[in-house]
Amino acid sequence: MFKRRYGVYMKRKLTVQVVCCWIVTLLLALGVTNLSYGEELLPTFGQGPIQLILFTDYFCSPCRSMEPDVEPILKDLMKSGKINLTFVDTPTNQITSLYARYFIYALNANQEFEEVLKARNTLFEAAEKRIQEKARLEEFLKEKGINWKLVDVTPAFNFWNRFLKDDNIRSTPSCVIIKGEKKEIFVGTLEILRALENLKKDIATGAQEAKVAEAPQIPAIKDLKPEWFFPEWLGVSPYTPSFEVRDTVNKYGRYAGLTKTITIKDLIKYHGHFCGGLVESAGALRVAFDLLFPDGIVDRTDLRIVSNNSACGGDVAAYLTGARLRFASHHIDNSLIESEFFVQKISTGKTIHVKLNPDVYPAEVKTQMKKIESGNFAPQDTDLFQELQWAYARRLVNKPLKDSFIIEEVQGFRWPEPVCRDLGARKDNDYRNVPLK
Question: What is the pTM of this model?
């Protein structure tokens, strides 16, 4: 059975029986009765008036994908001093109780918020590796530098159980925000991230806009208002690429005196839809252009490019460089991976090779893509793929783009032979340097 919110199918369903039996099962199976009772250790942080409760499971794929996006928002909210944050480990998998136990143990060893987030990340990573044995989990935590200290987990699990019952949580990820008498529940990655961003804006009006203004890669933002095909977060993320370009004023014309701004929104309109590959390719070319055009203005009359034949990367390459296959300025080489490019400034011959760092691409996106392409998939798999891709794209644009790509200058690059027959050269830009009369 699937639960759908904003086009996202939530695969995890909890039953009342699971929630009610969780504490009993944990006490019997984990042998906590020999632990001493002391001060109650609860996974709640901050003393602010706004209560924020985040329900996740380490074995929930959308939860795992959402975590890197949620973390920076939670850090900012904690710094504001306006929230009281509670993490609730939610039992959607039979191994969850083991992981939840060690989360409390890690909390007992170190209650610094950064260390708590590190422990959560490590447990998500362990779940992705399908670690199910206690000894192997302890070994993995030790490898990752996560300390833990035994403590009675009964208070924490009773605490969690109350939240699960009171808020009737039946799927993960879920989030509850309580401000005064107003209580709101959000389900699914997109809903939660949108709610947290709105909360952050409410607490510090204008903070997000200032962050965007400080980002060095956005010289002049124009139409970035959200629309059905363009999520709000993509327009306000600090490293969403934007491009200031120079073209000619008309056919056989000189260089235009003014530049134009190309945004991600423009690329989406050209390509047809928003996807991870589009953001990935735009990010790759942004870092390449930074090396080719230090002044920040991309001369589209002076570029040619090599890409593979992917729909996303090919469209982004053509639109941003002005290169075209029919003019032999856009070369197709399917030995390249998606979002891998050789970009050359024709006037100088300077060539930049850029490609995605393979460690950046999420394994779950690749797995879901292969499942869909195999033909053996359910309708909800396409919705899950969108959710995973959007979460990946969000991560890309919330950190410096250069951190996600491998980039190098190629000395003596030889332009490859055209893959199309000679259809003639482009001539309409040949008069860009004609002097003024």
Answer: 0.55
